[in-house]
């Protein structure tokens, strides 16, 4: 073997490129809920054959980001149960990941990309640039996730955050929503700058609580759930939000998701999304159960460990 010659880095495969292109369109809200996605049309738009498109869409479907419907794929409409399961995962994973990087972000250089994304978000908000704000918001999440040393954890967080993207693109078009998101980003950044992991995790948990409430408002699922609960128990709609963010109505936290838009009370973004069961919808539920089981195992192990 010739010494001193470094291996050539292989370019991403065609399937991976198509996968990332389609996922970017999902993140940007360019693909509407229920819109049929045909292999031939997408292949022509992307300038590739149908095979990599087929494989990429199958991968997205396995992750729950697309659903199969007849002979095509669609962007799935999420049910109330789906939303509860997805946010249960996010409550478990994201604050813990953010707490882990806080000792690093006390260093200005380490959090430079976080600060830059926050500055761009503030600038876009002042200019009324919703697309620029959405891009800065995504970069903010990517910046802090880049500091998390566990790539599997990062991948899981990204996956379940992406389930919300098609609604997020609509909600961030509202100036009031952007103001709420910006304040949340500023609170989280202040905690990270202080190196305070607990404060950062608390701010992000509040963010997620508000984001979940906003998502339910945007889809109309908050009213449906309130009506169902009242009819079963006789309770008035608007029961409070629990510590895990479940429930509907009530007093929401003051911050919202770093990577998700939120809606002020009474506001609504776009038409309500239809509620139906879709392929991949049970995946967040199974993942949530697995995470809870793992956490319970860790707690039992701690209880048995002599102090």
Describe this protein's structure.
With 307 residues, the chain is mostly helical. 62% of the residues lie in helices and 2% in strands. The chain has helices spanning 14-27, 39-46, 50-62, 80-105, 112-127, 130-145, 151-162, 165-171, 175-193, 197-219, 221-233, 282-304, and strands at residues 67-69, 72-74. Strands 1-2 form a two-stranded antiparallel sheet. Strand 1 and strand 2 form a beta hairpin. Helix 2 (39-46) packs across helix 3 (50-62) and helix 5 (112-127) runs antiparallel to helix 6 (130-145). The chain is globular, with a radius of gyration of 21 Å.
Distance between the amino and carboxyl termini: 54 Å
The helix fraction, in percent, is 55-70%
Mean pLDDT: 75
Number of strands: 2
How much is the radius of gyration in Å?
Answer: 21 Å
Strand content: under 5%
The main β sheet shows up as:
2 strands, antiparallel
Number of helices in the DSSP assignment: 12
**How does the helix and strand content classify structurally?**
mainly alpha
Spans where pLDDT lies below 50 across 5 or more residues: 231-282, 298-307
Outline type: globular
Give the SSE string.
Answer: HHHEEHHHHHHHHH
In spatial order, strands of the major sheet run 1-2
Secondary-structure topology with pairs:
Elements: H1 14-27, H2 39-46, H3 50-62, E1 67-69, E2 72-74, H4 80-105, H5 112-127, H6 130-145, H7 151-162, H8 165-171, H9 175-193, H10 197-219, H11 221-233, H12 282-304
């Amino acid at each position: 073997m010739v010494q001193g010659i470094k291996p050539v880095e292989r370019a991403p495969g065609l399937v991976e490129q198509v996968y990332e292109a389609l996922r970017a369109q999902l993140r940007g809200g360019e693909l509407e809920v229920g819109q049929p996605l045909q292999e031939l049309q997408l292949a022509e738009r992307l300038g590739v054959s149908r095979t990599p498109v087929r494989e990429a869409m199958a991968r997205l479907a396995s992750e729950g980001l697309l659903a199969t419907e007849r002979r095509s794929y669609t962007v799935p409409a999420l049910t109330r149960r789906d939303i509860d399961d997805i946010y249960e995962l996010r409550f478990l994973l994201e604050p813990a990941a953010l707490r882990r990087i806080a000792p690093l972000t006390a260093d200005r250089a380490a959090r430079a990309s976080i600060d830059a994304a926050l500055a761009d978000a503030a600038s876009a908000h002042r200019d009324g640039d919703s697309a620029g704000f959405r891009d800065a918001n995504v970069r903010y999440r990517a910046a802090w996730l880049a500091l998390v040393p566990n790539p599997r954890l990062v991948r899981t967080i990204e996956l379940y955050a992406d389930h919300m993207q098609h609604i997020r693109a609509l909600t961030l078009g509202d100036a009031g929503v952007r103001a709420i998101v910006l304040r949340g980003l500023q609170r989280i950044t202040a905690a990270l700058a202080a190196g305070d992991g607990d404060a950062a995790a608390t701010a992000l948990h509040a963010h997620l609580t508000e984001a979940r409430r906003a998502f339910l408002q945007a889809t109309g699922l908050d009213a449906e759930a309130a009506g169902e609960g009242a009819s079963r128990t006789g309770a008035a709609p608007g029961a409070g939000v629990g510590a895990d963010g479940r429930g509907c109505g009530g007093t929401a936290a003051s911050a919202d998701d770093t990577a998700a838009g939120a809606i002020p009370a009474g506001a609504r973004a776009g038409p309500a999304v239809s509620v139906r069961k879709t392929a991949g919808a049970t995946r967040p539920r199974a993942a949530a159960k697995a995470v809870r089981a793992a956490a319970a195992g860790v707690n039992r192990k701690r209880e048995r460990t002599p102090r």
